[in-house]
Write a structure and sequence with these properties.
CATH superfamily: Metal-dependent hydrolases
CATH architecture: Alpha-Beta Barrel
Largest sheet: 8 strands, parallel
Structural class: alpha/beta
Shape: globular
Oligomer: single chain
Low-confidence stretches: 1-36
Helix content: 40-55%
Number of helices: 14
CATH topology: TIM Barrel
Distance between the termini: 67 Å
Number of domains: 1
Order of helices and strands: HEEHEEHEHEHEHEHHEHHEHHEEHH
CATH class: Alpha Beta
Mean pLDDT: 90
Strand order of the largest sheet: 1-3-6-7-8-9-10-11
Number of strands: 12
Length: 392
């Protein structure tokens, strides 16, 4: 009798032990088969990997990373963790009692490069549980593009937080209603400082998510105004103002895997020219730009340009079919852990996903991310091993 009671007690204890050690059913379970290199490649249980996600706003505020991970569960397998390169200041001389929180809410040069954005990204990344670390790719961005010594900042930040960074981004060059509001003026595509910075990034072999509008805002729409045609264009058709200058920059840095955001530089008021798809085809076909990929991000803003007609939808899908390894998906959501808000950036592309079909959609939304960011992670860890400087 005593033996049966003892056996029953032991069985009950075993059941309790199993219950306490069973992992709740979340996307973290996908990490059970994570290989030694720390990459998550089993992503059948999620919708996409997010190449373009900001965890902080222009005040350097954002939700706890634990909330972001919870939001990702069953929806997003892997995601970048980006801050924002700049912070918007409240200057009462410019805006009096109104405290802007977004770059469109002020006309003053009140945005400044702020290292706290990167520090917070690193700090939050280090707070991620080990079991979830493989799901996130922290990116650095808050270095001053106008400072030729900013490469030293990058190296110091890597040494300060070894093992954290997967790459760089989002790095803004030309952006509507944004660049001109940076204190001291906008970064220049012709400045030697940007080459000095990207020489360091290239030395690390790290990926960089870059934003450069292909044109000035509303330039194309001015063609519809007779007075503007006469006064501005003098009878000639406009061309994208920044396209060739940025391509020249890209060509100088073949060692940096570049992700050109927003389907090659579209944005609010910066719409694709009728020739945009051909411009992009020419870039992707050119061996000099084999290191450049394109992201489909900021969907609520740019998808209406690209999917607004059957013709544009076909042109967009056909371009991806020709270069299926050169496109990635990103939400470009910021400082939120609300899945209902984030998923809209994916769903706006539904006509494109339907046109591409499951296999190509999987490549664009999942597989290309793994290839690009796994390589960048590996390269950054190798650079750290060969440059073992410590900050003391």
């Amino acid at each position: 009798m005593k033996a049966r009671v003892l056996a029953l007690i032991l069985a009950m204890l075993a059941l309790l032990s199993d219950a306490q050690t069973t992992t709740p059913p979340t996307a973290s379970n996908q990490l059970a088969n994570v290989p030694p290199d720390g990459s998550v490649r089993n992503f059948d249980g999620c919708l996409y990997n997010d190449e373009h996600f900001h965890i902080q706003d222009f005040k350097a505020d954002g939700p706890p990373v634990s909330a972001i991970l919870t939001m990702m569960n069953s929806h997003v397998c892997r995601s970048t963790l980006m801050g924002l390169a700049v912070t918007v200041a409240h200057d009462p001389l410019v805006d009096r009692d109104f405290a802007p929180v977004y770059y469109t809410q002020t006309d003053g040069q009140v945005m400044y490069y702020n290292a706290i954005q990167d520090v917070l990204v690193a700090h939050k990344s280090l707070a991620v549980p080990d079991a979830d670390r493989a799901r996130v790719d922290p990116l650095m961005s808050a270095f001053n593009l106008k400072d030729a010594r900013a490469g030293d900042y990058i190296k110091k930040m890597v040494h300060l937080y070894p093992g954290v960074w997967s790459g760089f981004g989002e790095i803004h060059f030309k952006k509507q209603e944004f660049s001109e509001k940076i204190a001291g003026g906008p970064p220049s595509l012709y400045s030697p400082s940007i080459d000095a910075i990207f020489n360091v990034i290239g030395e690390m072999g790290a990926v960089a998510v870059v934003h450069c509008d292909h044109d000035t805002p509303y330039n194309l729409s001015l063609l519809n105004e007779p007075a503007a045609r006469a006064m501005i264009f003098h009878g000639t058709r406009p061309v994208p103002q920044y396209l060739e200058a940025f391509k020249t920059f890209l060509g100088r840095h073949p060692n940096v895997p570049m992700i050109w955001a927003h389907f090659m530089g579209n944005g609010r008021g910066v719409q694709p020219y009728p020739e945009h798809w051909q411009y992009l085809d020419d870039l992707l076909a050119d061996p000099a730009f084999r290191h450049v990929t394109i992201d489909l991000s900021w969907g609520p803003v740019i998808a209406p340009y690209l999917l607004d007609s059957p013709t544009h939808l076909k042109m967009t899908a056909d371009l991806i079919r020709r270069y299926p390894d050169r496109f990635l998906y990103g939400s470009d959501q910021g400082a939120t852990a609300d899945w209902n808000a984030v998923k809209g950036s994916y769903e706006v592309w539904d006509p494109l996903w339907a046109d591409l079909g499951p296999a190509l959609t999987r490549q664009v939304t999942k597989e290309n991310y793994v290839r690009v960011f796994d390589a960048s992670r590996k390269n950054m860890r190798n650079w750290e091993r060969t440059h073992p400087d410590k900050i003391e």
